[in-house]
Amino acid sequence: MTQLETLSGIQGRALLRDIYRELRFDRQLRSMPTLRICWQICTSERELFRLTKKNVVVLHPLGTFSGTSLWMQEIVNRYYFSVINSFVYFGAAMLLVVVGLYRFHVITSELVVVAGIILEALLLVTMFVVMFFSPPEEPAGSDTDQDQNAGMTDELLRELGEIGRDYAAMAVQLESISTSLVDLVDRQETLITSMRDSVAAAVQAVAPNPDLMDSMRDASRSLEDFAGSVNVLTERLHAVERQEVERLVRIELERILSNTILHGHDRSAEASQTR
Questions:
Q1: 0.90 cut: is pTM over it?
Q2: Where are the domains positioned within the chain?
Q3: Which spans in the chain are helix H?
Q4: What is the pLDDT of residues 173-192, one digit of tens each?
């Protein structure tokens, strides 16, 4: 049986990594049970042979705070950093999608955007906590781990740079799309104005013109006045015609009477002479 003062030393950290590989790959445990057992070992467990195949006894457990810190450094940061980083990327992608859909009014609720921002912020905080508990550099004999950590750091920086470039490219594309949408809205406004003017012109063409109606009304009144004048003139002509007829009849009667009277005198004179 091997005894260790604490798990925070070099041997304890190496033992903790061996225990993780045993639980995860040899015994094929899932992630959550593996993390729970490792956290229990880091914080309070003394007799490790009760949980693993290692015949080791820890004399001084680290406790909750120090054990959790060791657990974050040696287990979570080493073996789950890529998973958490992937979730951060996924949250950033989902946030971009949600912001894009909200920008184009596909999503009208601001709560969805706020929820996406909160989720991405929580993922970034989680990533910060995991990176904050990065395992310390080990002395000689752990060059491989140092190289792995350096490679992971370089990869992380490179991926962060790629994310920054993707964000910049996405911002430029969104700005271009926004400009295109503004131009489209302006053209649509111009088209709507033209259509409104055309409809107004068509309505005016179909509907009666007020000026024309006034002119037609004035012409109608003028025609009525003219018809009244014609009627008056016709009546006066009829009166003049009757007077003229009466005058002619009077003249003719006078002529007939004159001729009758003259014939009567002539006959009387002839009769007197005959006597």
A1: no
A2: 2-136, 214-275
A3: 10-21, 31-43, 63-71, 77-103, 110-132, 143-206, 210-274
A4: 888 888 888 888 888 888 88
Residues 8 and 11: their CA atoms lie apart, in Å, by 8
* Other beta carbons less than 10 A from residue 112's beta carbon: 14
CA distance 51 to 33: 12
Tell me if 69 sits within 8 A of 133, measured CB to CB: yes
Per-residue tokens: 220: 């109608």
Quick one: tokens of 198? 């055309």
Say how many C-beta atoms besides its own lie within 10 A of residue 29's C-beta.
Answer: 16
Structure tokens at 160: 């962060």
CB neighbour burial string for 233-251, b if at least 16 within 10 angstroms, e if fewer: eeeeeeeeeeeeeeeeeee
